[in-house]
């Protein structure tokens, strides 16, 4: 006679991020010394403002010309003109919830309907307790005209768009990610 098993608990993403997904050069979307390179740094916090110390952020972005070296680029994959640019980064959070990525500003992206997406980074957040990754975008504050025309940013309630804008910092930009609460970052269902 076969034994019936009850409902099994859902498997979450963690706590193995710091064990199995550590990647020493992961934060370097471009090599140090790349012309125009800057740091994006931020903290991941929970709904109470407590730093999330066992999370990971992955970034995906176009090169400065707005192209991807990937077969899904509708214009065709193309090697980036910028030496060492890989378009992908990964950073685990430290003991204070900080992550960091060394990158360059991506170019604007054409939309199939003729519009344009503003320069942005796609970010995925992984962490203990999350059943699936959380996906958000980082937009640049010095791209006001492009941001105003961006169809994705335009689809977000005006009072929440600020959660998708990075802030200038001395060596680049700061972009904190709030998983819950009053200042919760906008996340997209993809």
UniProtKB/TrEMBL annotation:
Top enzyme class: oxidoreductase
Signal peptide interval: none
InterPro entries from the UniProt entry: Intradiol_dOase_C, Intradiol_dOase_core, Intradiol_RC_Dioxygenase, Protocat_dOase_a
Region (Disordered): 64-86
Any Pfam family matching the protein: Dioxygenase_C
EC number: 1.13.11.3
Feature: compositional bias, Basic and acidic residues: 64-76
Start and end residues of each Intradiol ring-cleavage dioxygenases domain: 38-180
Keywords: Dioxygenase, Oxidoreductase
Molecular function, one GO term: protocatechuate 3,4-dioxygenase activity
Source organism superkingdom: Bacteria
Entry similarity comment: Belongs to the intradiol ring-cleavage dioxygenase family.
NCBIfam families reported for this sequence: protocat_alph (TIGR02423)
Protein name: Protocatechuate 3,4-dioxygenase alpha subunit
Organism: Micromonospora ureilytica
């Amino acid at each position: 006679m076969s034994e019936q098993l009850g409902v099994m608990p859902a498997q979450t993403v963690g706590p193995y991020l710091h064990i199995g997904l550590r990647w020493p050069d992961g934060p370097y979307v471009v090599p140090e010394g790349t012309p125009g390179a800057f740091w994006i740094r931020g903290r991941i916090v929970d709904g109470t403002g407590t730093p999330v110390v066992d999370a990971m952020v992955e970034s995906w972005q176009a090169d400065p010309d707005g192209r991807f070296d990937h077969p899904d680029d509708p214009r065709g994959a193309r090697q980036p003109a910028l030496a060492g640019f890989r378009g992908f980064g990964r950073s685990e959070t430290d003991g204070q919830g900080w992550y960091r990525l060394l990158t360059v500003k991506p170019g604007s992206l054409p939309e199939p309907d003729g519009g344009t997406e503003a320069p942005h980074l796609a970010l995925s957040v992984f962490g203990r307790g999350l059943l699936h990754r959380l996906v958000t975008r980082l937009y640049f504050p010095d791209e006001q005209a492009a941001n105003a025309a961006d169809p994705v940013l335009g689809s977000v309630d005006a009072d929440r768009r600020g959660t998708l804008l990075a802030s200038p910092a001395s060596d680049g930009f700061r972009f904190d990610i709030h998983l819950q609460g009053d200042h919760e970052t906008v996340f997209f269902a993809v």
